[in-house]
Design goal:
single chain; mainly alpha
Length: 403
């Protein structure tokens, strides 16, 4: 029934499914934010935000870009979880408008006031939590309620970010709360979709060893990850935190090895999920090294944000955009170019911290790779998401599915 209503939607196709506007706008915002951030970092540009340039950059990546991607994924998945109708049309357009208003309010908050920006910005995630909770409870799908719980913590982190920057002058604890939530969401959702998608493809195209499905081991790793991240949020440079982060990083590597990613090299649309997940354990391990005083903390943070979040969002966005519009699930040369750009960006951004002598060069490479990846997604998938699917497929070189 949910699919039928979505297919029969009579309005602008952009608002037929949540992934359409949120994936497209998130990609545009991700590219534009970094396009602005690099000259801001070098003192060549400023915006009228109450946030300092560093905090504006962190906020718009962590509490602007990522919530849009999460919302697009969540409200596309919930109808499949619950069997209920999707959010579309005017309600979806209204939600998009609130997200856009938050971006404007934060960027102009020096003029509108920090409290006004907080209310407008926080309203988006508050609406997402309320709507998602209602749908999951109404559909009796209690097993997925923890995902909404993590989004609620992300909302709390966003509110704390505004308050902390106003009263303390800079974000410290609140930005780690948001990053911790993102790492857990990738661990939780990635741990379900990666082995599932891999199993489905291997059974059809490459029979043999299959990934181990989500089980008790995975649940234990997620639980231990949460404990390690709580310790990191409270005391990131503590030795006990370092030991916990290192141990959890190793557990995530074991977890990844159980998913048969080495058998997916023929399909880049699937392989990229495994490659993106590598940055999750890398982030834990680099943060452990930082806790021991051997690296700046930003190395692990960028492994999670530029690496895990950047790569996994593009992996999910490309796959979902093709799959939910009825297109062939295969990575065209253009899509593979997007993947290459984000991997280069992630490695360069971590490298800029690890190899400070080459920091400026690597920072520019990272920025260019990030912009190319997300702007490339917006240009390649924009017509498909807005409704002109066949023209978009020709542009991307993706074969149309058999009818």
């Amino acid at each position: 029934m949910a699919g039928a209503r979505s297919r029969n939607f009579a309005g602008w196709p952009l608002f037929a499914n949540s992934f359409r506007p949120f994936f497209l706008l998130a990609a545009i915002q991700a590219a534009l934010s970094i396009l602005l951030w690099l000259p801001m970092f070098y003192g060549e540009l400023s915006v009228s935000s109450a946030f300092a340039p560093r905090d504006w950059h962190i906020h718009e990546m962590l509490y602007g870009f990522l919530p849009a991607v999460i919302t697009g994924f969540l409200f596309t998945a919930i109808p499949n979880w619950t069997g209920r109708l999707p959010i579309q049309g005017a309600p979806l357009a209204g939600l998009v408008t609130v997200w856009l208003a938050g971006r404007v309010a934060v960027t102009l908050s020096a003029n509108t006031g920090w409290a006004f920006a907080l209310v407008v910005d926080a309203a988006f995630l508050a609406l997402v939590v309320a709507a998602a909770t209602r749908e999951i409870i109404a559909g009796g799908n209690w097993r997925n309620l923890p995902v909404v719980g993590l989004v609620l913590v992300l909302l709390a982190g966003n509110v704390a970010f505004h308050v902390e920057t106003h009263y303390e002058g800079a974000a410290d604890v609140s930005f780690r709360v948001g990053i911790g939530v993102v790492a857990l969401l990738i661990g939780l959702i990635g741990g379900r979709i990666i082995p599932s998608f891999t199993r489905n493809w291997l059974v059809k195209f490459n029979p043999g060893r299959l990934p181990v499905p989500f089980g008790r081991f995975d649940g234990a790793v997620i639980g231990l990850s949460a404990l390690a991240l709580i310790a990191w949020i409270a005391a990131p440079l503590n030795m006990i935190t370092g030991v916990a982060m290192a141990a959890v990083g190793v557990l995530h590597l074991v977890r990844l090895a159980r998913w048969a990613g080495d058998r997916t090299t023929r399909e880049r649309l699937l392989l990229i999920l495994h490659v993106g997940y590598v940055f999750v354990p890398l982030g834990f391990i680099l943060n452990a090294v930082a806790a021991f005083g051997e690296l700046p903390p930003s190395a692990g943070i960028h492994a999670w944000m530029a690496g895990a979040a950047g790569t996994m969002t593009l992996a999910v966005m490309t796959r979902a955009s093709l799959g939910h519009t009825g297109q062939a699930l295969t990575a065209s040369p253009a899509i593979q170019g997007i993947y290459a750009a984000i991997i280069i960006a992630a490695l360069a951004r971590v490298g800029a911290v690890v190899l400070p002598a080459y920091g400026d060069v690597l920072l520019h490479i990272a920025a260019c790779g990030w912009i190319l990846a997300f702007l490339g997604f917006a240009l390649a998938f924009g017509p498909l998401l807005a409704g002109s699917g066949r023209r978009a497929l020709a542009t991307m070189g993706v074969p149309a599915p058999a009818r």
